[in-house]
Amino acid sequence: MTDPLPRNKCIVSGCENHKHEGLFVGDLCGPCFQMLTSGDPNYGNTFIHELQARVKMLERALEAYERERNRYRHANPEYTGAYFLSGGHGTFDSNCLPQYVRIVPAYGCAWEQVYEKTDRTISYEGS
């Protein structure tokens, strides 16, 4: 029967340090030991930093995907059943945006709702 935990590797899940690569305290490598005893996940240059960077990158990718998914949903209401803009009227501002827009709640719906511009700007950086 084989040992499920290799004895020459740090026992912290995700850590790839081996005993021949540096200081070990029991079955923990030095950086993991310091991280666990100090309670500071930012101690040293450990695999946690790589995981934090990967999580941030995946969060940015998810935000971009959600924006594109919503754009597709509202650009193709006949397939998705989402609401869509059916037109605009009134005076236009310097960005060519109308004062009023008409929104249809679902493709094939026989009525629409009119919304008025509030001059409140919301961007991806905040409002």
Describe how the helices and strands are arranged.
Blueprint: E1 24-25, E2 28-29, H1 30-38, H2 47-75, H3 77-80, E3 84-92, E4 98-104, E5 113-116
Antiparallel strand pairs: 1-2, 3-4, 4-5
What can you see in these coordinates?
- With 127 residues, the protein is α+β, with helices and mostly antiparallel strands.
- The protein has 2 domains: 1-75, no CATH class; 79-127, no CATH class.
- It has helices at 30-38, 47-75, 77-80; strands spanning 24-25, 28-29, 84-92, 98-104, 113-116.
- It has a 3-stranded antiparallel sheet with strand order 3-4-5, with no helix packed on it. Strands 1-2 form a two-stranded antiparallel ribbon.
- The relative contact order is 0.07.
- The model has no long low-confidence stretch (mean pLDDT 83).
Count of all domains? 2
Poorly predicted segments: none
Helix percent band: 25-40%
If helices are DSSP runs of H or I spanning 4 or more residues, what is the number of helices? 3
Which key phrases capture this entry?
three-stranded antiparallel β-sheet, 127 residues, alpha+beta, two-stranded antiparallel sheet, 2 domains
Summarize the structure.
The chain has 127 residues and is an alpha+beta fold. It has helices at residues 30-38, 47-75, 77-80; strands at 24-25, 28-29, 84-92, 98-104, 113-116.
